[in-house]
Amino acid sequence: MRGSAKPVERTPAGARRFFAPVLALVACVAVLFAVQHLSRSFDYHAVVRALRHLHAKVVACAVLGTILSYTALIARDALGLRAIGARAPQPLVWIGAIVGSALGNAAGFGVLTGGAVRYRVLAAGGITATQVAQLTALTGVTFILGLVAFNGLGMFCAAPTIGRIIHVSTPPLLAGSLVVVAAVAAMFSWCRTDSMQIQILGLGIAIPSRRGLLAQVALVGVDIIGAGLTLFVLLPTAHLGLVDFLAVYTIALLLGVIGHTPGGLGVFETCILFALRGKVPPASVFAALLAYRAIYFLLPLLLSGALLAAFEVRTVAKRLMPRGLGAASPQLASLAPRFLGVITFAIGVMLLVSGATPAFGKRLALLQLALPLWVVEGSQLVGSVLGVALLFVARGLLRRLDGAWWFAIIIATVSMVLSLAKGLAFVEAGVLSFLIVLLATTRNRFNRPAALFEEKFTLGWIVSIAIVLISVFWVLFFAFRDVPYSREMWWQFEFDGKASRALRATVGASLFASSVALWELLRPAAGRLIPPTKEELQAAALIVRMQERSDAVLAMMGDKSFVFSRSREAFLMYAKRGRSWVALHDPIGPRREWPELIARFVELAHRHGGRAAFYQVRPEALPFYLDAGLKLMKLGEEANIPLHEFGLEGSQRTRLRYALRRGERDGLSAQTYGPTEVPALLPILQDVSDAWLAARHTREKGFSVATFDIGYLAAQSVMMLRQNGQVVAFATFMTTDLCTEATVGVMRHTAAASPYAMEYLFAKLALHLKEAGFNQLSLGMAPLSGLTPTPLAGTWHQVAHLLWRCGERFYNFRGLRNFKSKFDPDWQPRYLAASGLLGPFLTLADLALLTGNWS
Q: Which domains does the chain have, with CATH numbers?
């Protein structure tokens, strides 16, 4: 009987995750309508001219205003730490305030985002999470308080000017401003002369003394003045004094905070354009706002990213960090992925805007002499598509995915070349080269080996990209407002056809983004690997013990999930990596249950949009996989010693007899211990294992390889090798209750062991198992062994044989085969069965990560 689906309850959090992106999209459209109305009196070329006529002195003064603002932010953090009774090294306070504010301004949710960054920085100086939360709450509340206070003060000082802008008489404005100022003054009078703490939602909030509160608010004023001056100096001479402008700026800033967009983007610009209409040429205001965003928001973000990336370079980090704070460098460098994610997103927007705007005519004339038209056309189209790709890659960088890092490096490198080919965009190429340097410097921070699209993108991220594309379309229509649209534009391919080229690039990028977003929204859930429960492990162990295959004991490692047959008499074990659902070996249990298990596993993988694969399957089971529609690929051959034929007699055993005699001369002796004796030996085995791993600069593997896990090894048998009484090597072996087969599990030895130690160990193990009545001992697989190319062999056989012959730098293929051949084993082929045309090849890549235990 089928179980009924449980109804899904819509939680408030789920509703917020849905409505917040939708409201952001609506707000974006509303802001663009307002900006469209305000921009009717100027065009794109006027804005470009205004930007190009900004003097270097003006830009330098704007940078000084930004420095003043960020200095106030540092002072606020320092005073806040003093108010909550915490102390941190001054360099960490400076870095935390600068990088936290830079990321908060650029990414939005400044209090939360900046607080998270401050915690990572200040934690290196001994500041606790609770103290950082108190600091964040204090600075956030005082910023709002100061912003409201200075709004009231500015409205009082500039009431006539503000009244003319919003068409309100002066007396109501004066009355309102006095109410605001009086309310703030009353709050100050309520504060005590000494600091105190109050409890809000279980969090102790430190309320500074009246003097400390006044200092915080005064620094908020310095912060606002510095930021306001940054924009003021970028504007041409206007019929608006500094005091009146700062009043307007403060109101726009407050409305931007209420709008809750990153840095008040859109809302702030609309307010400034509306307030300065008729007083400053609109094109100059728009140009000043663009320059203001670049100087006050983008420049600190880029510098913060560069600062954090610099901590990855040890020689630079030693110079940056004062003595005694060197241990903080790794923690600071770990923040780099967050900044690179935001920077990459911003650069993706830059590429899209660049593709939607016309290139300079003189530069196109130079390109016309050097490049064919199709190169210029293709560069702009591909550049815009890559801009969209960067928007998606940015999320992977935030999550520290190595796949996203490789995508970002490739896209940035290609885009840098395309930026020159489409219009000699030198600034764009410079920014992209800067991104490449940051990515190269922070390579070690992107250490999560996961596919970029392994997890679904959130609705919020997709809506953010949609907002960017809507804004880019507005930029396109704004830049080519004077060009009448016609159907022929789609097919105009000329060096002077800037509008046609921009239209094709923007639409192409939008189609690409829509395709990715649609695929993300409609593709099935990837599915998660659920560790087996205690009951499932017990059921699997019962099945394993009652059959002959000893390699089935790998199921007890606990790192693989199970699919049981309906009768619960058989199961298969599997793991997941990317889109690959990989079952290890053939199903375990009666063969009559295998077709059902194979079919169910294939259906499970396909239901989640993955590819089904079976690793190291045996020749006698191949018809089952062919019937399931899977493709086969030979992986290599497994060495199995027929113990009833094994001995030391005869000429073919000369090398083994010599290894045993030489081992005895070196003081080697072997002893076998059963599962009940192994737990007491685990500390000794652990020392040998640790020495073996350290000598090879490697780590434990997994999935198809037995791993040194105390819980797993405690149930195995082990042969321990001593040299002159000192333990130098060991090998575990897996068996079942039927005692017919054994498989070598974990093998380790120390550097002090005799060169003949492992030959001695395996020979002794084979003799011991033969005496105990076992029929077969498996030494494991030799990869790529037995793949001999023939005239009719496929591509895989050709490539595999080439790797076998020339791949010794990467893996000791032939050396492993030669070592196992000393025991004269039967070589039995092993195969990979996988779904899809390229499924076997893609599965091999995921298998390398699975076996290497890369999570």
A: 47-295 (no CATH), 335-522 (no CATH), 640-784+809-828 (3.40.630.30)
